[in-house]
Amino acid sequence: MSTPLSLTAGRAAVLSLAALVLAACGSSGASSDPTTDAATSAGPTATEEAEVLPITIGTLPIVATSALWYGVDQGIFEEHGLDVTIDTGVGSETMVAATLAHEVDFVTLNSVSLMVALDAGVPLQVAGGFSQAWEDGDEDISAVLAKPDSGITGAADLAGRTVAVNTLSSAGTLTINEAVRAAGGDPAEIDFVEIRYPDMLRALEAGDVDAIWEVEPFITIAQGNGAQVVSWNFAESAPGLSTQLMVTAADQDPEVLERFTAALTEVLDAAGKDEAGLREILVEKLEMDPALAERVRMDRFATAINLEALSTLAGLAHDEGLVSKPVDMSLFE
């Protein structure tokens, strides 16, 4: 069966990430700053417990990032000797390139982009899990929505329809296809189009698309405007999926990695037990309307990775040609 045009375009877009970060690798090996070289060669003194270590985390201005801000505000990173700066000013591709160049120490990256990058030989390693979809309940942090009068009432009805996603050939498209397949529909008949999350609702209301794939806070916003959930695509295909992982360069200092991972584990554990505190951060850091911040569904957090759900996604990525060979799941353990 031939590959649909949307998947071909999506694969090219995802592979551009690998090309960009590989290019960054080629230019990051030499340092023109002798002071930096001297500091690097000093080795262990940079990670001694008595010394505060500056760390920059590249991430996105989304609901899940509230957990990182929480760790800074509560002083948990500081207790581990880390002076953390959270950089939300650039996109994922640029952040990964900066990580390989050691301009950023760690970056949150979605599972599919990481699989593609590793498949292409980009020298990255997994520092741990970060955000997760829900494993139980009737709702989740990822959903496909449609108008009430669309005739779309479930995943199978998405076959033959136009569905907006933020990125072609992503965790969204893979899990929507699987949800449709599981419901008895033919995912090959879906026409995926790429639209930014904030612009999807406008496209739905204008009739430009039949359904939209949203995450929070956009699910709650869309529901408030009358859209109805027709599929909880993560829950229907890979419940509890590790949606974002914490990633660093393959040559990251092992002591830095160990200290950061220990701190992150404590941060995510504490953040997961203080939902009210996270919602306050959404108002403060994301300038979210307080009423909306009270209603949005929050991600689950853990440095432990749900390997079962991630294996499902890895299999789908291979089946649809996003990676050239089966994903080595040991890289995520």
Classified in CATH, the superfamily of the largest domain is Periplasmic binding protein-like II
Number of domains in the coordinates? 2
Shape-level CATH architecture of the largest domain: 3-Layer(aba) Sandwich
Order of helices and strands: HHEHHEHEHEEEHEHEHEEHHHEH
Strand-pairing-aware structural class: alpha/beta
CA-based gyration radius: 20 Å
Q: What percentage of residues falls in helices of 4 or more residues?
A: 40-55%
Provide the CATH topology of the largest domain: D-Maltodextrin-Binding Protein, domain 2
> Percent of residues in beta strands?
15-25%
Shape: globular
Low-confidence parts: 1-15, 20-48
The number of distinct helices, counting runs of at least 4 residues, comes to: 13
Main location: periplasm
Protein name: Transporter substrate-binding domain-containing protein
Organism: Georgenia yuyongxinii
Domain SsuA/THI5-like: 69-271
Overall description:
- This is Transporter substrate-binding domain-containing protein.
- It comes from Georgenia yuyongxinii.
- Keywords: Signal.
- Pfam families: NMT1 (PF09084).
- By secondary structure, the chain is an alpha/beta fold.
- The chain folds into two domains: 187 residues, D-Maltodextrin-Binding Protein, domain 2 (3-Layer(aba) Sandwich), CATH 3.40.190; 90 residues, D-Maltodextrin-Binding Protein, domain 2 (3-Layer(aba) Sandwich), CATH 3.40.190.
- The protein has 13 helices and eleven strands.
- Helix 1 packs parallel to helix 5, helix 1 crosses helix 6 and helix 3 packs across helix 11.
- It is globular.
- The N terminus is likely disordered.
